[in-house]
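Ticket #4471: structure export looks truncated?
Reporter: QA, pipeline team
Priority: medium

Steps to reproduce: submit the single chain below to the structure queue and open the exported record.
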Amino acid sequence: MMGIQRICVVLGMLFILVREGGAVTFTFVNRCTGTVWPGILSNAGSARMDPTGFELPPGTARAVPAPTGWSGRLWARTGCTQDGTGKVVCATGDCGSGTLECAGRGAAPPATLAEFTLDGGGRNDFYDVSLVDGYNLPMLVEPAGGVGGGAAATATTCAPAGCAADLNARCPAELRAVGGAACRSACDAFGKPEFCCSGAYANPNTCRPTAYSQVFKSACPRSYSYAYDDPTSTFTCAGGRDYTITFCPVATPSLKSAGGTTTPTPTTTVPGVTTDVPPEMPRTAGGGGGGAGQGVMLGDNSWLASLATGDASSSPASRLALLAAPLALLTLQLTRL
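Actual output as written to the record:
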């Protein structure tokens, strides 16, 4: 009887470790010249991801674990300030919560959005970067172990997705918003069915690319430019892998506040750059500090994204070692029966 109880305990440990080993982590990286405030909104029916918003200073990273099967959207707010009552208001991407956390509220357009469905059909992840609600800053999504930025990255399987171009620099005058800090979609600006894919245009046969959506698509070929831009804009990857969301991955545009003032822009800025191939981001294999999911920036642009439980348990080799221990115990108990 005691042997059976021990086996049950070991099996329980194994189940927990397998479940945790498959958890997905989103690492948010800020390469912009100013602070951004990421926002997170879970879809209806999906478990909530915590936190739902936080501050991310320039040159830092933060890792946030996602619930199993999570789906939702991620974005960056810019130009956030507190008024005299302590209410937080942001120039772009504001979620209207009045606090750092968005608490179930989405981004006010215009805002660049990353959208995810984890562990969906066929146990695959589905992800994209959408400009359908407009654009406020460059964003890149990279799956861990993906195909990188080479020739193979033209496919939509485990490839980087996003927009590295500074669309604010080339935004048509009639779409400019917040003093040039964001670029509205034609749907948001004009509200016409042909731009919003609504009414008689609510299907892929009648809703076609417009001159405005083509401005977005030519600069950002790996992003959604309008509602039915699926074939070249939805990416898939085998489930269970981690993702890095980088704000300002190549170009480093200045971030304008609501008043239109800008932070100093370094000489490495390339406004209007059209390439969406991400720069190399060296990552360390060792452990490191950082608590509560806060990432740590190392020298020479390498990054250490540390989870609240510590980095040692997040590497594949460490996970295999953790799984091997209960398996060995289970084998030992079976031989004693």
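Status: closed, not a bug. The export was complete when the record was re-opened. Leaving a note from the reviewer for reference: Residues 7-21, 149-154, 257-336 have pLDDT under 50 and may be disordered.
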